[in-house]
Amino acid sequence: MNRWQLRLAAHAIHGGGVIAYPTEAVFGLGCDPLNPEAVHRLLALKQRPVNKGLILIAADIEQLAPFIAPLTVEAEAQLAATWPGPHTWLLPARADTPRWLRGQHATLAVRVTAHPIATALCRAAGHALVSTSANPAGSPPATTALRVRRYFADTLDAIVHGPLGGEAGPTPIRDLATKKLIRPASS
Questions:
Q1: Domain count within the chain
Q2: Which of 20, 84, 117, 134 is the most exposed place for a label (fewest CB within 10 A)?
């Protein structure tokens, strides 16, 4: 991974920008989750309604602490068994978690990623990032930087190039409280 690209992407995030980067299975769009203008710009690019909510990725669970309610020891153990890795969980959101992140839900979708570039981006930014597939609503997720550019032309502030993580499709999403599978793993 190119350190210059990483610094450029982190600078864009800190400046309120929207970036694209490789994740476990597809390219993602990301931004600072606490910057409402950046999140709303990302939602407009993706043509995604705010009420659906978004996923946050992090380098470690500490980066998610500002967004999720305190966890039980059992919940922490269950998460530790799947993280870092390609497992997204719905966890109870803190009362002050912005609506633009959780949508109409009391939970928030979060993942501690094992993808080296996504992890490095979270570390370089110093916080969790919004992570949603890089595609307009109704179009297939981008699996190359070229496809990201075709979808979004020059509307992004940075595109981080690199390989995907090798997963067949977007990560499964499971509700921690109910154990219900919300989005199955793609095959």
A1: 1
A2: 84
Among candidates 13, 38, 33, which has minimal Cα distance to 121? 13
- Beginning with the edge strand found earlier in the chain, give each strand of the sheet holding 129-133 in spatial order: 158-159, 19-22, 27-30, 129-133, 55-58, 107-112, 88-92, 173-175, 181-183
Sign of the CA dihedral running 180, 84, 139, 29: positive
Q: How does strand 55-58 pair with strand 107-112?
A: parallel
Contacts of 71 (CB under 8 A, 6+ apart): 79, 91
d(CA 171, CA 97): 23
The whole-number pLDDT of residue 183 equals 86
Whole-number Å distance between alpha carbons of 130 and 138: 20
Q: To the nearest whole number, what is the mean pLDDT of the chain?
A: 95
Find the CATH number of the domain harbouring 161: 3.90.870.10
Q: Which domain holds residue 161?
A: 3-183
Beta bridge partners of 110: 56, 89
Give the integer Cα–Cα distance in Å for 28 and 129: 10
According to DSSP, the residues that pair with 153 across neighbouring strands are: none
**DSSP per-residue letters across 6-56:** HHHHHHHHHTT--EEEE-SSSEEEE--TT-HHHHHHHHHHHT--GGG--EE
